[in-house]
Amino acid sequence: MNYLIGIDIGTSATKTVLFDEECRGIASASAEYPLYQPQNGWAEQKPEDWKAAVIQTIRVVLEKSAVPAKSVKGIGLSGQMHGLVMLDEDNAVIRPAIIWCDQRTAAECREITEKVGYKRLIEITANPALTGFTASKILWVRKHEPENYRRCRHILLPKDYIRYCMTGDYATEVSDASGMQLLDVPHRCWSDEVLQKLSIDPSLLGKVYESPEVTGKITQDFAALTGLSTSTVVVGGAGDNAAAAIGMGIVEDGRAFTTIGTSGVVFAHTSQMKFDSQGRVHTFCCAVPGCWHVMGVTLAAGLSLKWFRDTLGGDYVLRGIAEHRDPYDLMNDDAAKVPVGSNRLIYLPYLMGERTPHLDPDCRGVFFGLSAIHTKADMIRSIMEGVSYSLRDCNEILLDMGVPVKEMMACGGGGKSPIWRQMLADMYGCTVKTSKSQEGPALGAAILAGVGSGMFQDVPSACHRFIAADASCTPQTANMAYYAKGHKLYQKLYQKLRECYGDLAEL
Description:
Elements lengths: L2 E7 L3 E8 L4 E8 L11 E2 L1 H19 L6 E8 L5 E3 L9 E2 L7 H11 L1 H8 L8 H11 L1 H6 L2 E3 L1 H10 L3 E3 H4 L5 E2 L4 E2 L1 H6 L9 E3 L4 E4 L2 H7 L6 E3 L2 E2 H8 L6 E7 L3 E7 L11 E4 L6 E7 L3 H10 L2 H10 L3 H10 L9 E3 L17 E3 L7 H25 L4 E7 H4 L2 H11 L2 E5 L5 H12 L6 H8 L2 E5 L3 H30 L1
Helix pairs in contact: 1-6, 2-3, 2-4, 10-17, 11-14, 12-13, 13-14, 14-16, 16-19
């Protein structure tokens, strides 16, 4: 039997999964590593930690499964996007990687917008300049660490540093490269215009591939470290959300997924290049060759419920310990007893500012309508509804852009909640399903490796063959009518408070 490996290099840990030729998980392993914050708003990691985690987890899955190395036909890589890895002429890491959640580059974002032009930047890269993206990080190093920049010979993204360690190749692929703000997203290649205007040498960047294309093979050195075979190919892979989409079968028009993790994401596939001129959502190349995805992000989705659990929900934690149950399950049980609308309590989930649709770093969370009748259960349900309203904001922008959503998959911690999935179905007005497989990005990366290694014909047909839906929620007419009215008030609250948020920030 032939096998595939999917590797997801996340922010908190790397997860490696070995799949058989039917894309069934055979063995998995994960390894954690630290995140460093040298200053407020900074976020860095050591690429060497990612490498050590990848080597460790590959060895574990091979040892657990006792699969012959030559039977592993392909490896797909996924992981955190936007991080800046810089190598010198000896291929040594110059400095810790500046990762996606780092916020030090506001001035560099203004510089990018001034040099390229706001409208032109969106036309080329499909997005406005954002602190999370890689281009602003490159400019920051050039300005503040000129010696490090002079030493730099190669710029790689996190998963592409792992690719270099595996194959010796400097390469990336279109989905991850889309988040660097250096790619011509409509044409799926580096933008000479952006690179020239930002004075970035294109020789620093790796070759761009489509996600299922083979970028190299395992070197002898890496084979010795892991037990892999030098005949195993490594494909382009994909950024974390693009790989998760493959792992849930989001590979054709009309299909989308919602993730409720720490942040919330609404991600839709499109065979036509579309972008939002206001920059409220991201458009990236997706892992299906010749296609794109559009993605809206709300910053405090599951984080809002975690905040409640940690600050006000101590009794749920204690009950969970006593009853050997997850506190979130207890919170779900109580929220299910509260009527739609949370007894006229509305929550604005702006604990960390917001990205879609407002791009407002100053807005903050609000409970509106709080009265003496309200209980913790009301607050829990209102948090879930408020996050869902925010996700509805994202979905409506996609619809306005001509990106239809007929069926939605749900994933992440919040996606496991039946009550939260029902809210999404009622908010979106479409069926919301879950996937039988819980491997997400690792499965998506493995499917891409199966295509590249010749085991599967193409990405869509492989997904149709291996991805199956599990639970399903259909919209309820009465709930849809209520949430349509509630959403209008939810949107009005932000507009009324927008000026006050700025005043609060200056207080």
